[in-house]
Amino acid sequence: MKRIIILISAALLLPAIARADDGDETSLSPGFMARTGVEARVKLNRNLSLQVGEELRFGNGSAMERFQTDLGVSYKLSKHFDVGLNYSLIEKYKSSASAFQPRHRLSLDFSESFKTYYWTFSSKQRLQYTHRSTQYVNIYQDNPNLIGMKAKFQAKYRGFGDVKPYGYVEIRGNFNEAWGHMTSTTSSTTAKSGKTYYPYQFDGYTHAYINRYRFALGADWKLSKKIGLDFRVMADSCSDYEIDTNSDGDKLFSAQYENQMVFSACAGLTYKF
Fold first, then answer.
1. Rounded to whole angstroms, how far apart are CA atoms 62 and 68?
2. End-to-end distance of the chain based on CA atoms, in angstroms?
3. Nearest to 242 by CA among 227, 216, 224, 260
4. 81 Cβ partners below 8 Å, 6+ apart?
């Protein structure tokens, strides 16, 4: 028998991490951010489920920064293990172009969950592929076909009734970012802007590294069968490798790791029917 669950959620981050959930854009930007979404889950049988969702994200000044459509399928392999396949169409606002720019994401998820006494231990691993049109990116700086990963490990305590404290650690990384090297240590300046550059050779998409660590403590509060609250504090450490080249990829203006640490608090509301 089919069972349909509708989940409506909203969250406010203070201060927010403006690009906290993009596997291909990892730099952190303090500010205020809100998001809201709706998700429908259809249980086709005991093990197989379909999900479809829509999410809106708002940044500083309440301007919409991104909207995302998700379609997925999940299968329960056993009592403790699940596997899922998801497609996402992401429209992200680019201020320099004054327009939303699309990207397509395909992800494969593996999740595990175990209960013992009052504790639930769970983990989720995601392998994802994100495609962006080359008309929106400098291919010598950013890979238009990026492969990344996420891994999340969580522990939740169920001994306080409707309030369930939890903590988790999340790790993110990319496997094929742009890489290259200077062919000379002699610098020059461009005729138009006067920017300093070095002769550069693009080596391909060979750079693999971990670019994000997230640590969180929070609590789920079940107000009723339909309504729940979520409170958490997070610490995000980002080490993103940024390359700045010309459009031909033979002049390097800068290449460095940008290390940032941002602390944030989040309050969320969910409604299920």
1. 17
2. 17
3. 260
4. 110, 111, 112
Other beta carbons less than 10 A from residue 227's beta carbon: 13
* DSSP of 37-57: EEEEEEE-SSSEEEEEEEEEE
What number of residues does the chain have?
A: 273
- Read off the pLDDT band of 98 (50, 70, 90): confident
Secondary structure of residue 9 in the 3-state scheme: strand
CATH number assigned to the domain comprising residue 163:
2.40.160.40
pLDDT in tens, 65-91: 889 999 999 999 999 999 999 999 999
- Per the structure, how many domains does the chain have? 1
Give Cα 183 to chain centroid, integer Å: 35
Cα distances from 198 to residues 12, 157, 179, 244, 254, in angstroms, run 43, 55, 15, 11, 9
Give the per-residue pLDDT at 60: 66
- Domain containing 151 equals 3-272
Q: How far apart are CA 59 and CA 91, in angstroms?
A: 14
Q: How does pLDDT run across 169-208, given as a tens digit for each residue?
A: 999 999 999 999 999 998 888 877 788 999 999 999 999 9
Q: Please state the pTM of the whole predicted model.
A: 0.88
44: closest CA among 72, 20, 18, 23?
72
Write the burial class of residue 99 (CB in 10 Å: 0-12 exposed, 13-18 middle, 19+ buried): exposed
> Residue 26: what pLDDT?
46
